[in-house]
Design brief:
Strand order of the largest sheet: 1-2-4-3
Low-confidence stretches: none
Radius of gyration: 17 Å
Order of helices and strands: HHHEEHHEE
Structural class: alpha+beta
Distance between the termini: 40 Å
Shape: globular
CATH topology: Muramoyl-pentapeptide Carboxypeptidase, domain 2
Number of helices: 5
CATH class: Alpha Beta
Number of strands: 4
Number of domains: 1
Length: about 170
C-alpha cells in the first residue's frame, strides 16, 4: 500500500472510507449534471447506463477478490457482495435472503434521492440506470442471477424506501 495505514485508528479509517464514498458519489452526480447540461437528460441517462455497465462488474470483481467470494456462489455470495459495495457505506439498505434462490435489496435511504427530496425536487429517474447497474453486478457474482426491479424512481415507492431489487437464481 502506498500509505502506512497502521498510523490511523479504526474510527478514522472508517470515517475516511465514508468520506471517499461520499466524494465518489458527488463526482458521479456532478459528472451526470455536466452531461445533462450539455447534451440533455436522455443522453446523460444513456451515458450513465454505459458507465455503470462497465463499473459494476469491476466493482463486483474487486469485492469478490478482496472478500474471497466465489464466482457462482449463489445468494450468500450476492448478499455478501451487495453489503460491501462502496455506497453501502453511505446509503441505508436492507439485504434479505428470502430463500436459497432469492435475494431482495431495499434501498431504505438513498443519499441522491433524499437530497432531492430535501431540495423539493422530483425524484431522479434512476430505474434505467439501476437495471443495468444491478444486472451486471449480480451476474458478475453469479451468472445465473436474473435481476428484477420491484420499484425505482420514476416509479412510485413507499415512504420506507426509495427502490427495491429482486435477484433470483434460475
Amino acid at each position: 500500500m502506498a500509505r502506512d495505514i497502521d498510523k490511523y485508528d479504526k474510527e478514522l479509517i472508517i470515517d475516511m472510507l465514508a468520506d471517499a464514498a461520499k466524494l465518489w458519489l458527488a463526482h458521479d452526480g456532478l459528472w451526470f449534471q455536466a452531461v445533462e447540461g450539455r447534451f440533455g437528460i436522455r443522453d446523460a441517462i444513456d451515458l450513465d447506463k454505459e458507465a455503470w455497465g462497465r463499473f459494476s462488474p469491476i466493482e463486483a470483481g474487486r469485492i469478490m477478490k478482496r472478500h474471497e467470494i466465489p464466482e457462482g456462489g449463489g445468494v450468500d455470495a450476492l448478499a455478501k457482495a451487495l453489503d460491501r459495495r462502496l455506497y453501502s457505506f453511505i446509503n441505508v439498505q436492507t439485504i434479505e435472503v428470502v430463500d436459497d434462490k432469492t435475494v431482495i435489496l431495499t434501498m431504505n435511504n438513498c443519499r441522491v434521492q433524499s437530497a432531492r427530496e430535501r431540495k423539493g425536487l422530483e425524484p431522479f429517474p434512476c430505474k434505467e440506470v439501476g437495471i443495468v447497474e444491478y444486472t451486471t453486478f449480480a451476474s458478475t457474482i453469479d451468472p445465473r442471477f436474473r435481476t428484477r426491479c420491484l420499484t425505482c424512481p420514476p416509479d412510485p415507492h413507499p415512504l420506507e424506501y426509495h427502490c427495491a431489487w429482486e435477484f433470483v437464481l434460475r
